[in-house]
Amino acid sequence: DMTDRIRDMLHTKEQLLLDVSHELRTPLTRMKVALEFLEDSQAKQSIQADMQEMEKMVTEILETARMQHKYENLKKQPTNLVGLLKEVLPEFENQPPGIELVEFPSEVMAAVDSEKIKTVFENVINNAIKYSQPDSGPIRIFYKSHKSYAVIRIVDQGIGIPQEELSHIFEPFYRVDKSRAKDTGGYGLGLSLCKTIMEAHDGKIEVQSRPEEGTIVSLFFPSGKS
């Protein structure tokens, strides 16, 4: 019937996307090596930026597919989320507008796959930096306990997201700021994977935003679960 045909079409589309993504990895690696032998130029930088974006998209497709396959690849261990966050922050040192940890305890424990959650932190902070102006207020990261969750909030004072776009930002490769996508990668790149990872941990990710005021991304981790 129609339902089965639609399901088959979607499955075929997903499988094709996965196959193409796998096949892209080898030529991308070869191109990266070849680029190293070119002299520095604006053209080289532009090609490198395009390749990094392609790599990120390929990684997102493959990681999302892996995570959705019954979450079998999770390696959950009791982990200090504060320590994990502090491992990620040096990547963003000296990038304006800066980052502040606000009202953080020394320890927030949750059962997580450290590498997967580091990916979430990196994606969310990277988006916050891209969409902040160099002279805007610093990105602030807060912690609060909410019911049975440990909540980490990343707050920026950047360009914000229009209300009509908010419901789409967790779609794979959806870009809010299409006019600036070449420069910034588009707000939302990576958020689909973040959502999959958080849900695999029985947590969730929520986004609140106002144009010209900024964005709040809240990460909810079940506390005290193993």
From TrEMBL:
MF terms in GO: phosphoprotein phosphatase activity; phosphorelay sensor kinase activity
SUPFAM superfamilies assigned: ATPase domain of HSP90 chaperone/DNA topoisomerase II/histidine kinase, Homodimeric domain of signal transducing histidine kinase
Reaction equation(s) it catalyzes: ATP + protein L-histidine = ADP + protein N-phospho-L-histidine
Histidine kinase domain ranges (all copies): 19-225
GO biological process, one term: cellular response to phosphate starvation
Any Gene Ontology CC annotation: plasma membrane
InterPro entries per UniProt: BphY/WalK/GraS-like, HATPase_C_sf, HATPase_dom, His_kinase_dom, HisK_dim/P_dom, HisK_dim/P_sf, Sig_transdc_His_kin-like_C
Residues passing through the membrane, by range: none
Record key words, sorted: Kinase, Phosphoprotein, Transferase, Two-component regulatory system
Name this polypeptide is given: histidine kinase
Source species: marine sediment metagenome
